């Protein structure tokens, strides 16, 4: 077995005491292992296997997210240089301040205002024919509900609200927020002083841990999905095997397609169950309406009365798969 990486981490357990743990990456005949060694309450060293497998990218993802998990519990690397992918809470400038504002907003959001902003987003998304998150994320709405900007210039001081977004939505947002009181004024320099640094550090690493865990889970799911596609599995079978909702499953298939990985077999097999007339209408609708949004394509194919007797979610599924086929055919032409 070859030792590829080794580092120690320490966590304070009292005024003058610390716990020291070690993380290591080893390789043996193409199999990667990640080990975490930490003493228990009696001082006996306990080993936890974080990963064992043949996939380098999955191993790196597992290393990063499990390390972030430990750092959220207070472990600090003795040598910081080998911890790629795990950010430091001691960053400078706008990036660090943005994270502090996000942290504060989670603790001090005005829930009544947050609900009003969600309703505004829902209505605005309907007017523009967009998904609500493209108007503003939940995280962005939390910022608004915590700091309550009354003017466009104040709105622009919040992360994610640049010139384009404020130009499009400042009037609608401020019309709501101006009716609410706030606990502090702009600029927001006062926020950092009121944040407990230890609590913020734990939150910061926890956020990164969750992101990395999602990345790791997605890598594993995509690998298993690809293996299933290569075996000729159906969507129904893959849904059972991966325990992933069909909507997320198709999103993963779209990602594989964007990465240039062949998914034609699955796409063609699933589309074979769709009536030929509906497929033909859908192809024409895509040609007229474009590929970006599916709702106009759906409305082009079916009348509201026809949709009453159909499973709209299943229609969207095969439309997404058909879009993959059309894009591939267009790129190959």
Automatic annotation (TrEMBL):
Q: Name one Pfam family in it.
A: HRDC
Q: Tell me, what is one Gene Ontology molecular-function annotation carried by this entry?
A: nucleic acid binding
Q: Which residues form the HRDC domain?
A: 107-187
The protein here is known as HRDC domain-containing protein
Organism encoding this protein = Paenibacillus swuensis
């Amino acid at each position: 077995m070859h030792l590829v990486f080794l580092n120690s981490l320490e966590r304070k357990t009292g005024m003058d005491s610390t716990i020291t743990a070690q993380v290591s990456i080893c390789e043996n005949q193409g199999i990667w292992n990640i080990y975490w060694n930490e003493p228990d309450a009696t001082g006996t060293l306990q080993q936890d296997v974080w990963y064992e497998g043949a996939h380098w990218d999955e191993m790196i993802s597992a290393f990063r997210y499990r390390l972030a998990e430990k750092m959220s519990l207070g472990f600090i690397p003795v040598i910081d240089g080998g911890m790629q992918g795990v950010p430091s809470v001691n960053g400078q400038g706008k990036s660090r301040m943005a994270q502090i504002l996000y942290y504060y907003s989670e603790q001090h959001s005005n829930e009544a205002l947050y609900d009003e902003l969600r309703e505004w987003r829902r209505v605005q998304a309907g007017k523009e024919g967009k998904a609500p998150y493209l108007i503003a994320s939940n995280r962005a709405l939390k910022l608004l509900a915590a700091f309550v900007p009354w003017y466009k210039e104040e709105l622009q001081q919040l992360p994610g609200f640049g010139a384009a977004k404020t130009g499009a939505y400042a009037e609608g947002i401020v019309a709501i927020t101006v009716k609410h009181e706030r606990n502090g004024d702009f600029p927001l320099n006062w926020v950092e002083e009121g944040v407990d640094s230890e609590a913020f550090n734990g939150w910061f690493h926890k956020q990164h841990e969750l992101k990395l865990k999602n990345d790791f889970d997605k890598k594993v799911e995509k690998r298993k999905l690809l293996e299933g596609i290569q075996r000729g599995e159906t969507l129904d079978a893959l849904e059972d095997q991966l325990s992933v909702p069909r909507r997320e499953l198709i999103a993963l298939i779209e990602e594989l397609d964007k990465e240039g990985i062949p998914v034609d077999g699955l796409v063609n097999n699933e589309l074979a169950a769709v009536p030929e007339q509906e497929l033909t209408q859908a192809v024409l609708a895509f040609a007229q309406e474009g590929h970006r949004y599916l709702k106009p394509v759906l409305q082009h194919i079916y009348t509201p009365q026809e949709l009453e007797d159909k499973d709209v979610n299943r229609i969207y599924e095969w439309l997404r798969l058909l879009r993959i086929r059309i894009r591939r055919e267009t790129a190959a032409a």
